[in-house]
Amino acid sequence: MNDDYLWDKSGEPDPEVQRLEQLLGTLRYQEKPLELPEQITPSRSTNHVFLLAIAATILMALVAAGLWLKARHNQVPQDQLAIAPSSPSTPEPQKDAASPDKQKVVNPPTTNSGETERKPHVARAKLPTKPALSPKEQDEALAAKQQLMLALRLASEKLNEVQRRAVGPTTPIKNQHKVG
Amino acid sequence: MKSLFHHTYLKLLIVASFLTMAVQVSQAQTPRLQLNSLDHLAAKASETVDVSIDERLIQTALKIFKDEDPDEREIKKLVSGLKGIYVKSFEFDKEGEYSATDLQAVRAQLQDPAWSRIVNVSSKKEGNIEVYLRMLNDQITGLAVLSAELKELTIVNLIGPVDLEKLTKLEGRLGVPELGIEPAKPKTKNEQ
């Protein structure tokens, strides 16, 4: 017996080798094309879903950013006013009928000790509105100021009237309770 | 794949509808009173005041307030946090030009639980004045004054944090141009 069969399949085969050939032959490489199921072929709709997910994320981010900016914008004036009620009432200043003509925006003086804490905050909040007003803006501001003063005067008058009438001995107070 | 697409689309729709609802709810919760129902009284009134200042206009007006003037500085402090000032005032030549039904629409808005009436002064001689406050976390977010006098109807609506004490003290310190509204008021105050 020689080993030619093992080398080039010539010569007399060994029965044991033949048996092993038959056993292992089923596992030999068989050349055939790869068959993929049609369902998992990549389709274009996957891209749509991906794009939609991105769009939804961007939309949500924009909404969140908008809400945050709005909340931040609202917080600034509330912070300013939150300090105001707690500050001690200032003495009655002298009457000086304001002539709301063209005026420049000037930084507030630093004489009142109660305002020193608030100043950096106000200055920062008002910084974008500091530039000088155009004549049109000036007119609009003047008109708005007059309306504002009129409204405040009416509101103040009515509140004073309520106070006066509520304190008066002849007027009945139907419902009054302390707030806060 | 189509179902996945529809699923995402549905989710987007739900999110969008939630956002819309949130916006609507926030609008419904605004302390601004709708006073349009009173507009028809302007035809009967001898004097009418209609002030409508939103937050932008308030900020615009504040630009020309003088900080060196103590009165204006006070007003600036008072107003800087406000988001709106709305006033309607009608003065009539004779009594009975308006009725309680004219005020129903305004009163209905003030029935909202967020509003609470803190003062109601009623008098047959002088009419009624009611003060309502809208509170959120112990902070005033709105004020409404409803003054229904015999020859005058005034509704004041301030939106935002209001310092009532300072607002009350403002009277007599405002350099407001006289527009012929309520000419008899200073006399009645002095009489008291």
Task: Please specify the SSE layout and strand pairing.
The complex is a heterodimer of chains A (about 180) and B (about 190).
Chain A: H1 4-8, H2 15-25, H3 45-86, H4 119-126, H5 135-167, E1 173-176
Chain B: H1 2-28, E1 47-54, H2 55-62, H3 70-79, E2 84-91, H4 104-110, E3 115-123, E4 127-136, E5 139-148, E6 152-159, H5 164-169, H6 185-191
Antiparallel strand pairs in B: 1-2, 2-6, 3-4, 4-5, 5-6
Description of the molecule:
The complex is a heterodimer of chains A (180) and B (192). Chain A has 180 residues and is mainly alpha-helical. Chain A has a domain at 133-167. Chain A is built from five helices and one strand; from the N terminus they run αααααβ. Chain A is rod-shaped, with a radius of gyration of 44 Å. Residues 78-129 of chain A have low confidence and may be disordered. Chain B has 192 residues and is an alpha+beta fold. Chain B folds into two domains: 1-29; 31-175, no CATH class. Chain B has a six-stranded antiparallel β-sheet with strand order 1-2-6-5-4-3. Chain B has helices at 2-28, 55-62, 70-79, 104-110, 164-169, 185-191, and strands at 47-54, 84-91, 115-123, 127-136, 139-148, 152-159. Chain B starts with a helix and ends with a helix. Classes of the chains: A mainly alpha (180), B alpha+beta (192).
Descriptors for this entry?
heterodimer; A: 180 residues; 5 helices; rod-shaped; B: alpha+beta; 2 domains; 6-stranded antiparallel sheet; 6 helices
User: In terms of per-residue confidence, which ranges of chain A show pLDDT below 50 for 5 or more consecutive residues?
Assistant: 78-129
Strand portion of chain B: 25-35%
Strand order of the largest sheet of chain B: 1-2-6-5-4-3
Mean pLDDT figure of chain A: 68
SS content category of chain A: mainly alpha
* Percent helix of chain B: 25-40%
Total count of helical runs of at least 4 residues of chain B: 6
Order of helices and strands of chain B: HEHHEHEEEEHH
Provide the structure class of chain B. Answer: alpha+beta
What is the oligomeric state here? heterodimer
Mind summarizing the main beta sheet of chain B? Answer: 6 strands, antiparallel
What pattern of helices and strands is seen along the backbone of chain A? HHHHHE
Poorly predicted runs of 5 or more residues of chain B: 176-192
Strand element count of chain B = 6
The average pLDDT value of chain B, as a whole number, equals: 81
Gyration radius of chain A (Cα, Å) is 44 Å
- Label the overall shape of chain A: rod-shaped
Number of strands of chain A: 1
Shape of chain B, please?
globular
Number of helices of chain A: 5
Largest interface: A-B, 77 and 87 residues
